[in-house]
Task: structure prediction
Amino acid sequence: MKVSSFRYDINALRALAVLSVVLFHFFPTSLPGGFVGVDIFFVISGFLMTSIVVSRVRAKRFSLLDFYRSRLYRIVPALLVLCLLVFIFALLFVDPITLKSIGKHILSSLGFFSNYVYNAESGYFSDSSRLNWLLHTWTLSVEWQFYCVYPLLILFGYMLGGEQKLKLLLGVTLLMSLGLAIYQGIAGDRVAFFLLEYRAWELILGGFIYFVRAPPQSKTVFLQLVGLGFIALAIFIFSESMMWPSYYALLPTIGAALIIYAANSQSKLMTNSVTHKLGLWSYSIYLWHWPIVVGLVYFGFDQTQNFIIGLISSIAVGALSYHFIESKISMPKNLPQATIKALVWNKLVFFTLVLGTIGLLAFKTNGFMFRFDQTTENIVESVKASPNRNKCTSSDSDYIEPQDGCKFNLAKQNYAVFGDSHSIELAQAMSVALRDSDIGLHQYSYSACGPEYQRRDTATLCEKWTNSVVESIANDTTISKVIIIYRMSSHLFGSHSTYYPEISDNSSDEQREIIITSYKTMIDALIASGKKIILVAPVPELGESVKKMLKASLLKYGEIKPIKVGTSRDYYNRRNEYFLNVLDKLFVNNKNIEIIYPSNFFCDSKLCYEVKGGKSIYFDDDHMSMHGAGIIVNAVLETIKKPSN
Result:
């Protein structure tokens, strides 16, 4: 397929892609499938890279080092400036915990491995991602990884036997990548979202268009309209609840491929000045819009009117970035052929290494904590979750069979920690406390999974997992004691954060009775198998996260004041009254059960605290930090040591 010097249709497709992504990020409910703009970008990139490499290979003037140098000048300048300004801004205005995270993400973004970092941290659509300043750079990492491998694949294809062998090789690679993406989607594993091996097919799909003979002129408008229709359907019908990319991504990517294949640059839709400018600015708009989104959320300006201002600002800053960075710092013409030395000693590479090193230092020094006093440092450094949080926790999107759960120093006698995400830090702290003993530990944690033992009204992965865990524990004669902890009031009444300080109630009495029945039946089954049970009552929930309170102190005082008060004891009592009464009624007098009340350690008669002993008890608004979990573990072990009646 012939590639003209400037493709207005591809430029317009870029404009459509960036607008869909930006609008989705600012107004996700208005454009629920806007994230497909990223998939469109991948198709465009695959087509352009194929046209560059193959055309030069055909002409016998392709240089791999020149190709890499051109990609370096295309991507790095604006990215480098973005990372620098985000870092300076963070150094002045954000809390050290966030700065530590930004430092790591600057390093991974400039090193083009941020997609793997984000894949290990959290999902693209999770709430926590809205505060990840450089999350969007995962797409640049995918593209750079593709640029590193793809020319070699093309050269290998030609070496095998010319263009026909190349097409066969690309086709097989496309089908393998697509198959992996579909398989992961069916399996319910969101790992496919960030990683090249599950995205390569989108780029190669774009590349295949280069080899296809141009369509008859009479069909170009029709093909273009069909492509636009496919993309429109995806943007307005798809949503973040879908497993992605999977087979759903075929709709927008085929739509983009049809538009590129049609090569119709004559319509006003493709050539008007607004579309043309947005297409030219698309990379810079994409780069700058996301930190603006995060900044508005971080500082509490996440109202519609502010997002409208943010949207306009993203386009304006993108335009400035294009004219003063992209256009000014571009690869000089008539350069001699690139050498490895020229790439290594390139100024862009040098400044990238410098800023990447600064990011690494920010990460290693916990956000340059030496700027603050020891009291502040103790608080900040204790805002820590379990280092094994992802590894040891099952979820609907990353299901772990109970037998594959984490085990610590298993011995002739073992304990088990069992529950939802509130069990994760407790299990980790327990494993540390038992490290030098002759007792091992099984961890059974499933995020957002309440007591669903033998429920007849539902059939979920959570229920399957819970039934299996209870059976595993009951049949394991080495397990003598089971520590159970759930965020029960959340399962019974719904999340507290939207309603705080009011009490939420998003369930029914009937549903609550089902949950309590399941909870009791589960405990009875474990007792019947000879286990001793330690129930951990609900942990006090805060009105806002520890990190947000640290940030508020930094903004208000220019330093972090020691924070002590988290919420009122009255709120805790009202929020948990229902379940505390259940504990009193059903379990207090059972000789096989001991109950630990975190409120006895985290609260006094009037207040519940978020800092205890100069360290944070929490790492967010409801999960205990490792320090907080350690306090409860000490209470559990003291209870175990008590002589039985």
Residues 170 and 388 are 39 Å apart (CA to CA). The mean pLDDT is 91. The chain is about 60% helix and 5% strand.
